[in-house]
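User: What would this chain look like folded?
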Amino acid sequence: MLRKAYEYKKRRKAKLFRNIGILLFFCVLLIGMVLGMIIPLRPTVSDQEKRELTKFPKIQEVSFLDGEYFKQVDAWYADTYPFRDELLAGNQAIKSLYGLHTEQIHGSVTGGDEIPDVIDGGSTTEIPSSGGDNGSEDPQNEENTPVQTSEADGETVSETEESTEAESSEPETIGEADIPNAGGVVADELKPQVQGSVYQDGSKAYALYYFSKNAADIYINAVANMTSKLDQTATVYNMLVPNSSNIQLSDEKIQELAISDARKATDYYYKSINNISGNKTKTIPIYDTLMQHKDEYIYFNTDHHWTALGAYYAYTDWAKVKGVNAHSLDQFEKMQFPGFLGSFYSTLQSEELKNNPDTIDAYVPMGTNTMEFTQTDGQTLKWDIINDVSNYKEGVKYSCFVAGDNPYSKIENPTITDGSSCVVIKESFGNAFIPFLVDHYQTIHIIDYRYYKENITSFVKENGIQDVLFVNNLDAISDVEMMNRLASIL
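Assistant: Here's the prediction, encoded as structure tokens.
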């Protein structure tokens, strides 16, 4: 009898705990549903991923009827769930407790295209490419050139938008207090920077480079043809920057990860461009210099960019090719910004990287620390070339260099009056390099080809610019669509 009573109490107790568990589960679901419906809590940007989140879709009859609209609503709901970044970070923290893992790879390891051999003084005909008609004789009419992706992409992107000019010829001056954490001003804050594969080894990560022949040939033709068009007008310089994986990983690890040979790729770019342009493009060979300093802090641990020190070593090579004396580092005022967690951390959300934040060293130009830049909306602002980002969020501190990524920027050095001028055509790797150029030119124009919409060749001719300098990372110019975009505005 006592045994039956005991069994009865045990079953009732188990049923009670089961019911409590079910009730708690549904309470969590209810709280999650209510939380998800509180629209003001929904984020619009991700600080961790440095991108704008999915926007609520507009109703269109076709998309509504075919069900596509509800798929977009679902994507919006998932992408903008309240406390999204915190939940992702928590998930990654839990995953970090799973066993031992000193190495990890984000993305696929597939290897790049085979890099062809090129002989100096070889064929001077154009290299066939998968897109981008770069041979137009009238650059004035190239503003709205269609930008085509590779055949594999199977789609065409048209660049027909007209550039927007600032409403006033007098640039607005704003301070750091007006834009806390650089919100909305610096393009780096919202745009993801790492598109390819990332390899992490403990507290440091590396971007993996895979050569794309289609993208390379579009870049080669674009730069070579621009050199030809500017013959007797301006001197074109070309600098290609290898990834940290090519410089700082061991030969064995490079082979294991099937990383493309950056030295051979650079050789292919440089020789091919000069074979087409008749050796009129001045190449800046920085690979060996960076290799000589591979054990120094020339690339960040948590971000894919090089540091100002790495950019400085490249600057000394530029000075040799240009025929000017490079300034020594001790001539510059040095600013430091600790606590930088860059694109690798945003991608991997790794505790090892979080515990090994970078410190950004920045060197203030001697002649001036003032610049102007024009945003994508056409607004022109005054800014500092090296801006104090001490109070910025840890993910956007790289924007201390030349206000980050903007379509067009301009630097006037009042201490130089010889009329010298330069156009720098770059992506974000150029940002840390440009401050070292300031004390060599009266005027520097900065163009980020990813956002600029005017014709650059025409711009150079109309403004009587003497030097054109391409500064680009090898991985960044391995995207066919972006290279077609670059070709369309050259």
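The mean pLDDT is 80. If you want, I can go into more detail on any region.
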